[in-house]
């Protein structure tokens, strides 16, 4: 039988749909446990990724995948894809009613604590660029005079490394603070001057209450304290499928002290669990096991 040598497939045209296919396949696999990426979302990711890669001098999606993603599954290439895939929209004092309700409960706990006892511990899971944990800390500062780190310890985490870095930096543009009342702007933000005009930085006494960590909620071990007094998991559950959503819900319950609070987004509907009683449409409280 005559041996026929097959011609190698020609390389895909840089930045074409065929060139993007290895990246798309990787993203689809990486979304395990999360809602599937829509064609429109993939198209947006592709466009944003191309801009970033061209600016870095990368010649094609395929080159990026083969050189930076496939050989380094936990490296900078994969993190770039995670950051581009994640939806990081948040605002200061968003959905204020449940946030303030839990802040009032936590403030009462702080006031009742004896000097020298451990601080109240709060976790903002899926914190974006820090708007939520800083908002919560500001609400508590309004309720508890001279609030300090010895009284309150807020941990903020997100899967997007870029967002975590922005949160730790705590600098925001004026348009991001358009809905913040002027009184709070004066009290909790430092206005940039000269070359930094139009920028605002969270005041140091509020920044001192919040620390940031970078990790995926789907990892089996969470580097946050046990026996938390409150968890803010708002507008994040909607990005997980039903199985992972309920698994995370139960894991959060296991991290709360008895009497601790879990706050979800107003649009997120989660059922009660044996140890999680719904107090309000978006607020749950940890109770003793039956």
Characterize the structure shown:
The chain has ten helices and ten strands. The chain has helices at 17-30, 39-55, 61-69, 76-85, 96-112, 131-143, 161-169, 182-188, 204-207, 242-255, and strands spanning 120-125, 152-158, 171-173, 189-191, 199-202, 210-214, 228-233, 256-264, 276-280, 283-286. The chain is globular. Residues 1-8 have low confidence and may be disordered.
Salient structural properties:
seven-stranded mixed sheet; 290 residues; alpha/beta
Concise structural overview:
This protein is of the alpha/beta class. 39% of the residues lie in helices and 18% in strands. It is globular.
- Average pLDDT works out at 90
Helix content percent band: 25-40%
First-residue to last-residue Cα separation = 75 Å
Could you give the order of strands across the largest sheet?
6-2-1-7-8-10-9
Question: Number of helical runs?
Answer: 10
Low-pLDDT sequence parts:
1-8
Blueprint (SSEs and pairs):
Layout: H1 17-30, H2 39-55, H3 61-69, H4 76-85, H5 96-112, E1 120-125, H6 131-143, E2 152-158, H7 161-169, E3 171-173, H8 182-188, E4 189-191, E5 199-202, H9 204-207, E6 210-214, E7 228-233, H10 242-255, E8 256-264, E9 276-280, E10 283-286
Parallel strand pairs: 1-2, 1-7, 2-6, 7-8
Antiparallel strand pairs: 3-5, 4-5, 8-10, 9-10
Helix pairs in contact: 2-4, 5-6
């Amino acid at each position: 039988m005559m041996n026929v040598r097959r011609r190698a497939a020609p390389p895909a045209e840089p930045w074409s749909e065929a060139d993007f296919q290895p990246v798309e396949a990787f993203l689809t696999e990486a979304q395990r446990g999360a809602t599937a990426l829509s064609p429109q979302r993939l198209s947006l990711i592709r466009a944003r990724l191309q801009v970033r890669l061209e600016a870095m001098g990368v010649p094609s999606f395929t080159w990026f995948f083969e050189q930076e993603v496939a050989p380094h599954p936990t490296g900078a290439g994969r993190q770039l894809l995670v950051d581009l895939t994640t939806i990081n929209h948040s605002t200061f004092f968003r959905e204020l009613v449940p946030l303030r309700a839990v802040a009032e409960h936590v403030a009462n706990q702080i006031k009742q604590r004896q000097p020298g006892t451990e601080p109240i511990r709060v976790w903002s899971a899926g914190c974006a660029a820090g708007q939520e944990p800083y908002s919560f800390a500001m609400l508590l500062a309004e309720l508890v005079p001279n609030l300090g780190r010895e009284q309150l310890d807020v941990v903020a985490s997100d899967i997007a490394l870029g967002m975590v870095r922005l949160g730790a930096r705590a600098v925001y543009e004026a348009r991001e603070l358009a809905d913040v009342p002027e009184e709070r702007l004066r009290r909790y933000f430092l206005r940039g001057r000269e070359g930094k005009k139009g920028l605002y930085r969270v005041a140091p006494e509020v920044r001192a209450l919040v620390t940031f960590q970078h990790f995926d909620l789907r990892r089996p071990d969470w580097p946050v304290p046990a026996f938390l007094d409150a968890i803010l998991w708002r507008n994040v559950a909607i990005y997980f499928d039903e199985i992972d959503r309920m698994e995370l819900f139960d894991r959060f319950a296991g991290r709360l002290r008895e009497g601790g609070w879990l706050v979800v987004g107003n649009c997120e509907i989660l059922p009660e669990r044996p140890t999680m009683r719904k107090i309000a449409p978006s607020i749950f409280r940890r109770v003793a096991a039956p």
